[in-house]
Design brief:
Helices cover 25% and strands 44% of the residues. The chain contains four helices and twelve strands. The protein has helices spanning 4-46, 124-131, 139-142, 171-174; strands spanning 50-61, 66-79, 82-91, 96-101, 104-109, 114-119, 146-156, 159-168, 179-185, 190-197, 203-213, 231-233.
C-alpha cells in the first residue's frame, strides 16, 4: 500500500497541472476572442458617422417587482468631436423626445409643453462613455473606462453575438451602474442588446433592431420640435 502513495501523488499532480493548462488555454482563447471583438468595434468607430435603430427599453424595478417598457427610434451621429443622440419614445403614449447635445440632456414632453434640461457638465465624458457603448465607441477605447471580460457567444434574433461583461473602473460610476452586459454583433462591431444593472438590483434591458449604419439622418431629428408655449425647467436649479 505504501508504494501506491507516490503514484497517487503523481496522478493528482498531473491532474492539477492539466487543469491549469486547460484553464490557461481557455483564457488565451477568451482573450483572443475579446481582442477580435474589440478590433472590429475599433474599425466601426473609425468609420462611424451615424446610427439609426428601433428600440425596446425594459426598466425593471426590484423594490416593486415591475417592468416598464418604452419603444421608439434612436439616432446617433458624430458632430465635431462629440456624439449626439436623439430618441423618439412613441410608446407608451403620450410620446416623449430625448436629445443629448451640447453637454445637455433634454427631455421634451409635448402633452404638457415642458422640456426638462440636465447639464452634464464635468460628467459629460462619463455620460458619453455609456451613450456610445456599442454605437460608435471604439473597443479599446472602452478599456479606459471599463474592465471588460469575454463571456462567450449567444444567438439573438438569428445573430451570433459576442457577449461582453463590463465593470466601470470609476467608483462614482459604479454607484450608478455597477455591472453592464453587451451583446455585440461581431460582423458590424455594434451592440444589439445591452443590460445595465444598478447596485439596488434594478436593471435596464435595451434591445435594438432595424439598425442602419452611416445612412443620412435629417438634421431635424436632432432638434426638439417645441412651440412658443413650451417651458424649459432644470431640476439642477
Amino acid at each position: 500500500m505504501k508504494r501506491t502513495r507516490p503514484y497517487l501523488g503523481y496522478f493528482f499532480t498531473a491532474a492539477f497541472a492539466t487543469s491549469i493548462l486547460l484553464a490557461t488555454c481557455a483564457g488565451a482563447q477568451s482573450n483572443a476572442a475579446l481582442e477580435g471583438v474589440l478590433d472590429q468595434m475599433d474599425k466601426t468607430a473609425a468609420n462611424f458617422h451615424t446610427t439609426e435603430a428601433s428600440f425596446a427599453w425594459d426598466q425593471y424595478q426590484k423594490v416593486v417587482d415591475e417592468t416598464d417598457t418604452q419603444k421608439g427610434k434612436v439616432y446617433f451621429r458624430h458632430s465635431g468631436n462629440q456624439i449626439q443622440m436623439a430618441a423618439d419614445i412613441s410608446e407608451p403614449a403620450p410620446p416623449k423626445y430625448v436629445l443629448f447635445a451640447d453637454n445637455k440632456v433634454q427631455i421634451y414632453e409635448p402633452k404638457i409643453e415642458r422640456v426638462t434640461v440636465y447639464d452634464t457638465g464635468k460628467n459629460r465624458a462619463e455620460f458619453e462613455s455609456f451613450l456610445v457603448l456599442g454605437f460608435g465607441g471604439g473597443g479599446h477605447e472602452m478599456l479606459k473606462s471599463f474592465d471588460v471580460k469575454y463571456l462567450g457567444q449567444e444567438t439573438l434574433e438569428g445573430i451570433q453575438t459576442a457577449k461582453l461583461d463590463l465593470v466601470p473602473k470609476s467608483v462614482s460610476v459604479r454607484n450608478t451602474f455597477n455591472h453592464i452586459i453587451l451583446w455585440i454583433d461581431p460582423a458590424r462591431g455594434i451592440s444589439i442588446q445591452q443590460q445595465l444593472f444598478n447596485p439596488q438590483g434594478d436593471f435596464r434591458l435595451a434591445k435594438y433592431s432595424e439598425i442602419k449604419l452611416n445612412e443620412k439622418i435629417p438634421d431635424s431629428e436632432f432638434k426638439l420640435k417645441t412651440t412658443d408655449k413650451t417651458k424649459f425647467v432644470s431640476p439642477q436649479g
